[in-house]
Amino acid sequence: MESELPALKEKNPQLEVVTELSRGQHPYLKGIYRNRNERVVCVKNMDPEEVLLNATRLRNSLGRKVVKLRTRHVKF
């Protein structure tokens, strides 16, 4: 991960990438958005490629809460 995170930071200068070492806790990614929402993704036992994919998904999401859509009943 030491090589992937700086590359992610260089490709996306609008992002602030901070790494911290927390002993006794699982590794995770945390996205903090402009609308003050947070998303946390656990990356325990993931390959560096999977971690980078999850970081990209956090970057691409809008930070809105997930709302379950109602199902439409259609008659045939």
TrEMBL record:
One of its GO terms (molecular function) is structural constituent of ribosome. SMART domains: L51_S25_CI-B8. GO terms for biological process: mitochondrial translation. It comes from Arabidopsis lyrata subsp. lyrata. GO terms for cellular component: mitochondrial large ribosomal subunit. Gene3D superfamilies: Glutaredoxin. Residues 1-62 form the Ribosomal protein/NADH dehydrogenase domain. This is Large ribosomal subunit protein mL43. Keywords: Mitochondrion, Ribonucleoprotein, Ribosomal protein. It comes from the Eukaryota. InterPro entries: Ribosomal_mL43 (IPR039927), Ribosomal_mL43/mS25/NADH_DH (IPR007741), Thioredoxin-like_sf (IPR036249). Its main location: mitochondrion. Belongs to the mitochondrion-specific ribosomal protein mL43 family. It is found in: Mitochondrion.
